[in-house]
Amino acid sequence: MKKRVVLLLTGLFIWMSSLFAQDLPAGVIGAFKKGSSQELNRYLSDKVDLIIQNKASNVDKSSAEETMSDFFSTNQVNDFNVNHQGQRDESSFVIGTLTTTNGNFRVNCFFRKVQNKYVIHQIRIDKTNE
Questions:
Q1: Per-residue pLDDT tens digits for 39-53
Q2: All residues at 6 or more sequence positions from 62 whose CB lies less than 8 Å from its CB, including other chains
Q3: CATH assignment of 25-127, given 3.10.450.50, 3.40.50.2300, 2.40.30.70, 3.10.20.580?
Q4: Which residue from 44, 101, 108, 117 has the highest number of Cβ atoms inside 10 Å of its Cβ?
Q5: Is 112 within 8 Å of 91 (Cβ atoms)?
Q6: Among 65, 53, 31, which residue's Cα sits nearest to residue 125?
């Protein structure tokens, strides 16, 4: 009987931990894997800092989608792998490698919590030397 209770509590703890860990939108990773600016747009803040290969701009949501669409059309995406992700207080981040037809890019995507959901407030994309 005690084993069942311990197993039940352990399972409940793991399940609850996984629920809280999913605050970060999984759709963002899927959008990068597909190279879909439209899908990425659902997670953008009203204002986004975009830094693409050392060209920085602070743009609104629609301009950010257009810029990302241009980037994805120029660099057709083959895959996206998450290297690291983290969360602290009201912010989180994802760092990954975007594999494209024009080489690999390091993607840093920073989120902040707005009305109980995470939105992207900065995307940085830099070419890697791999």
A1: 999 999 999 999 999
A2: 41
A3: 3.10.450.50
A4: 44
A5: yes
A6: 53
